[in-house]
Specification:
- This protein has about 110 residues and is an alpha+beta fold.
- The chain contains six helices and three strands.
- The chain has one domain.
- Strand 2 and strand 3 form a beta hairpin.
- The longest helix is centred in the last third of the chain and has 15 residues.
Length: about 110
């Protein structure tokens, strides 16, 4: 038996499993849309998704994965959007980026 999962039921499943705060509304929306586009027959497994995907701010990702967000002189890039673009480029080289909202990314762990 198959059940159609809407965005709301997707989010509710994370709440039921006590995992909503691991992502939050915007990140879950990005993840839901990504799964709908890439794997519409996906069988929802909240725990597996929590193990396979993460979300974080570009600056935190840069620190965690030692992504260079400096200019040619070695000075930190001041523009937040420019730093986020560098992080996105680095993530795309290493893993799958499901999407972005503001300067936060939802991506497959690597």
């Amino acid at each position: 038996m198959k059940q159609t999962v809407t965005l709301q039921s997707f989010m509710d499943a994370f709440r039921v499993h006590g995992r909503y705060d691991q992502f939050g509304y915007h990140a879950l929306e990005v993840l839901y849309k990504y799964l709908e586009e890439t794997n519409p027959d996906y069988e929802l497994d909240v725990i597996a998704l929590c193990c396979e995907y993460s979300h974080d701010h570009a600056d935190n990702i840069a620190r965690q994965y030692a992504i260079d967000v400096t200019n040619y002189d070695g000075e930190p890039i001041e523009d937040e959007d420019e730093r986020a673009q560098l992080v996105e480029n680095a993530l795309n080289e290493q893993t799958t980026v499901c999407g972005r909202y503001g300067n936060y990314f939802v991506f497959a762990d690597f």
